[in-house]
Predict the 3D structure of the following.
Amino acid sequence: MIITKAKVIVCSPGRNFVTLKIETDQGIYGVGDATLNGRELAVASYLEDHVAPCLIGRDPSHIEDIWQYLYKGAYWRRGPVTMSAIAAVDMALWDIKGKALNTPVYNLLGGRSRTGVMVYSHANGKDIEQTVDEVGRHLEMGYKAVRAQSGIPGVSTTYGVPKGSGKYEPAEKGLPPEHAWNTEKYMRHVPKLFQRIRDVYGDEPLLLHDCHHRLTPIEAARVGKDLEPYRLFWIEDPVPAELQEGFRLIREHTTTPLAVGEVFNSIWDAHELIREQLIDYIRMTVLHAGGISHMKKVASFAEMYHVRTGSHGATDLSPVTMAAALHFDISINNFGIQEHMPHTSETDEVFPHYYSFEGGYFYPGDTPGLGVDIDEEKAAGYPYEPAYLPVNRKEDGTIYNW
């Protein structure tokens, strides 16, 4: 079997996605996700102009060799564009191998390590009471774990909270919008949110919260300490993680579990955090971290240091990534939890899939390969639309972390 074609498909069924379809001379094809929120066309060009020509004529079963070729062969290693492109190739090759061997991909990764994959979803509200109601709605849907975000009094826009009655989607059409931020108001507000949730729902629900890189280490230490009475499953991305040693200061002051890494794209981004046990969950994804092949290595390294996975799973990852993530999640021993934001009905129609949700768990299905596809005819009806994540400014106008 040899690769005969590598096609890049850009579409926008509810939001922008980049999909790679690799075809072979035996009629078997595989799909991979290459979406990079707000930089989709950069990855599409990287694939079309630089990666796809290098794939033609290769044996698709040589997954590790192709991965190393694309990573080491370009000389300019790492970075979100490169690693998202490599991930798309990697997913598609695992999909092909599963179809060729007539088995789900998780069987090629060592088989199931659990019966289902626990996921968490998002409860968002304009104020505490609306968020509390949303937590209850998600618990009624069967989720055992819920991430809670609330509007902050005196702050006009808040991460995680939709503007209207629809689902939250951070990317907005047109050029990047500007949001306002006030750290002090946030730090006073967030403990009140979780106190109220615990008062209403008790100790059993697993509760999570995303700080979204907006704190300094000492501020994060204070928030973690203030949230200890409410026993969170984790606080996510408390600080920008370029300065990995900053997590030492947080660790010294709080026992609230720490999760980080959705913007990481290599094991080297998390090497010190994992080796020094400064975090509890690594949130790298099979998309932005180079695919299933690289994430298997990340998980194996993390397992030695009691760090579990908690992969990013927002709507800026297509159902192709969700399918790949579930095969990865169900196969590893140190799985922790998987994020899940439901896609729009338009997205689900463009990307038919076999994974399913029941009782707080996702199941990858037993279809050969990844169990997901792209309907190219329907995808063509949703052309690309420029959209960007917001830019944050403090109230005095200073650019800050979004």
Q: What stands out?
A: The longest strand covers residues 3-11. The first helix runs from residue 40 to 55.
